[in-house]
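Thread: quick sanity check before group meeting

JM: Hey all, I'm pulling together slides for Thursday and realized we never actually wrote out the predicted structure for the chain we discussed last week. Dropping the sequence here so it's in one place. If anyone has concerns about the input, flag it before I start.
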Amino acid sequence: MTVVLRRVNRIVLGLVGLLLVVIGGAVLAASLDLSVPSWWPWSGPSDVLLTEADRRRWADEGWWWPVVIAVLGVLVLLALWWLIVQFRRARLAEILVETGDGEGAVVRGRALVDVLEADAAAQDGVSRARIALTGRRTAPRARVALLLEPQASPGETLTSLTDEALAHARTSAGLESLPAEARLRAVKHRARRVS
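JM (edit): ok, ran it. Output follows.
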C-alpha cells in the first residue's frame, strides 16, 4: 500500500506541478508581451484573466453559488485528507519470512500484531497493549504502547516485553532482529487512603 501511495503521490504531484508551471509560464509570457500561441486566451499585458462579463455570467443563477461552494468544499476536504495521509505512519501489511529454500513466505502484519498484543497484554501489570508494525517487509520495526496498572514495575515490564513477547515474535517470524520503540503509560487511579 505504501509503495502504491508513494507512486500515486509522485504522479499526482508531478502532473499538478507540470500543469502549474505551464499555466504560470504562459500567463507570465503573456504579461511580459512575449510570443504565446494563438489559441491562448491571454495574448498581452493589457488582457485580464477574467473579464467582468465572465465574472458575472453565472452570478444571477440560483444554483451557481451553492455549486461553487460545494466544489470548493470537496476540494478542501480532499486536500486535507491527502495531507493527513502523508503524515500517517505506514503500517506493514505483510512481513517476508526467510524459510531457507530461497523463496520465503509471507506473514500478514495484522496476524503478527495480534499475537504480539496478546503476549504483551498477558504480562503481569499490563492493562492494555497496542502495537503497530512499521518499516520494510524484510526489516520490520515495532511501536509498542503499554498501559500499566498502578502496581506494575516499568523496568520489569520492559524486560519481560523484550525477553518474551518480542523474542517470541522475532523467532516465530524468523527475523534476525525486531527493533521496538516502547511507550509506557500508567492507568489513572485515585490515591489510596492510609488509615
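AS: nice. The beta strands are 94-97, 105-108, 126-135, 140-148, 180-186. The first helix runs from residue 2 to 31.
JM: adding both to the slides.
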